[in-house]
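re: ur question from yesterday

yeah so i grabbed the chain u mentioned. its 118 aa long if i counted rite. heres the sequnce exactly as i have it in my notes:
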Amino acid sequence: MHNWAQKAAGYVDCIGRASNDAVWKFIQKTFEEQANITEANSDEKLKGIAKAAGANADEIAACALKPDTKARIEASLALGRSVGVTATPTLFINGRLVSGGAPVDLLKKIADFQASQK
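ran it thru and got these structure tokens back, copy pasting raw so excuse formatting
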């Protein structure tokens, strides 16, 4: 886990609860830009990515710092460890492991397809 991972997870949690469309855009752009994000510039970069994804960057940054957001992230990390997740992105879709390395667009298509099968 890199030094700005939990901050980014907070952004994903908050954006995802506000907009399914914006969260996928945020995730995609964050993965594309990860080589340019450091602990020192993470606030600026993540806020810029959030804004470009269509989210209110200031509200998302504030939300990411809230104790309930941090609690959801810790619970997610614990769940991931309990099922052997070792990399991101990793998804379990209908019990099937879809590990990192797949393009985010493909992961979204798989998730949307599976959701439509209910």
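noticed a couple things. The helical segments are 5-18, 20-33, 42-52, 57-64, 67-82, 104-116. also The longest strand covers residues 91-93.
anyway ttyl
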